[in-house]
Amino acid sequence: MRPPRRRLPRAPARDFSLLQLLPNILTVGAICAGLSSIRFGVQGEYLLAVELIFFAAVIDGVDGSLARLLKSNSRMGAELDSLADFLNFGCAPGLLVYFWALQDMRSAGWLAVLALAVCCVLRLARFNVAMKAEDDVLPGPALPPGYFMGVPSPAGGLLAMLPMYISFAFTSPGGAHEPVLPGIVTCAWLAAVGLLMISRIPTWSLKAARIGRENVKFLLVGVAVAGAALLTYPWETLILLCAAYAAMVVLAFVRPPRQRHRG
């Protein structure tokens, strides 16, 4: 007769402080901002809707670094962040552009929105698998340090709304903010941004940037100037930032950085 198995004592559940839960709380707040932006887009309040997407992008740039700083990284937090990215940068921007300018185009406009959303979710799936495997899904040379493969989803979501920035910048503050670009151009832009997200173009990662001590003062001045410009001329500044980022992507495509090969 076999002796009865002794059950091993379970490890005590780990308790989290409210401070350690702050990154996940921020991510949930970003999800609420993305959903609220869709609501305001349906109601025609496009300025507030775009601002909420920008707010979600700021949170996305902070929550991961905060989690590492507080040593509260978790698989749940990573999955939550990925779901938030899909909602905030794959769904909400395309829907806002559709409600604002593409409803009259019907099928073509909706296909462009679908293309953006599908490309975003494919990019996030590829990134998640690559992070779990500590390698890239697709064969070939690895990326140089400090680079993403393709345009990240937050940058893609902000780029997708460029036609709205142009309209807001070149119409009066009290105007109706009618589209400046033709609908077919807006559709093509949404599809192009989606393709950039799933491309293999190495794009520079702001999070991996390193600044020399002698250049810190210039960076702080630049951040202050950019912040003041965003508050004073928000749409013109966003247009310039999108143009600068697009130029970086084109430069990386024409002259890709040196890649390190796997051993």
Shape: globular
The CATH class is identified as Mainly Alpha
Rg, alpha carbons: 21 Å
Q: Structural class, from secondary structure content?
A: mainly alpha
What is the CA–CA distance across the termini? Answer: 54 Å
CATH third-level topology:
Four Helix Bundle (Hemerythrin (Met), subunit A)
Query: Superfamily at the CATH H level?
Result: CDP-alcohol phosphotransferase transmembrane (TM) domain
CATH architecture verdict: Up-down Bundle
Helix content: 55-70%
Q: Helical element count?
A: 9
The helix/strand order is HHHHEHHHEHH
Number of domains: 1
What are the low-pLDDT stretches, counting only 5+ consecutive residues below 50?
135-140
Count of DSSP E strands? 2
In what order do the strands lie side by side in the largest sheet? 1-2
Q: Per DSSP, what share of the residues sits in E-state strands of 2 or more residues?
A: under 5%
- Look at the structure and give the mean pLDDT: 82
Largest sheet properties: 2 strands, antiparallel
Structural commentary:
- It is a single chain.
- The protein is mainly alpha-helical and 263 residues long.
- The chain has one domain: Up-down Bundle (Four Helix Bundle (Hemerythrin (Met), subunit A)).
- It is built from 9 helices and 2 strands; from the N terminus they run H-H-H-H-E-H-H-H-E-H-H.
- The protein has helices at 22-42, 46-70, 75-102, 107-133, 153-160, 162-169, 183-197, 216-232, 234-254, and strands spanning 147-149, 202-204.
- Strands 1-2 form a two-stranded antiparallel sheet.
- Helix 1 (22-42) runs parallel beside helix 3 and helix 6 (162-169) runs antiparallel to helix 9 (234-254).
- The relative contact order is 0.11.
- Residues 135-140 have low confidence and may be disordered.
